[in-house]
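The data are set out underneath:

___
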Amino acid sequence: MSGFAEKALRFDGHASGGNSSRAGMFSIFSAREHRAVILTSDHGTEFNENGHGFTGHGTSFSAHQVRIAFVLRWPGRPPARISRRTSHNDLAPTLVTELFGCTNPPADYASGQSLFSDSQWEWLITLSHNDFALLEPDQVTIVYPSGNEVRDQSYRLVQHPRLSRDKLRAAMQEMSRFFN
């Protein structure tokens, strides 16, 4: 068995082994009507689905690593699926405005907006230890300390990329509000 196959089986084992504990977690959803419940992850895991050699997490900014499950049960709100682009950056404004009643605009303290708003992200920022990426609907621009690269929706390297300079500038300004 290849190393890749062993990793995939081990991942499947961990995921399926959690089914019994997930059953207990999901009982929380119906336990009390006044409780907000959030289930999410900080990253996805990739198994070279795109055939570009990326596996695990923290190795790329592909959809397999940056898109994650996010389940929110909110008191007094019926179940719904949000199909627009959202970010973990939207969690703080959702909690602060909707749960704690803060009336300040979310831009005063966060990069996101309430998940219950109709706001649509034109682009998102995601970070790793040394670089960041600007996620747009049609491309991913990765900014490394030594340069950048652009990848398409299938995470293929774009040979003659179109850089979104205004969006990159806006992303760097937004990051500078909270990061040094």
Observations:
- The chain has a mean pLDDT of 83.
- The first helix runs from residue 3 to 17.
- The beta strands are 37-40, 46-47, 55-56, 70-73, 124-127, 132-135, 139-144, 147-152.
- The first strand starts at residue 37 and ends at 40.
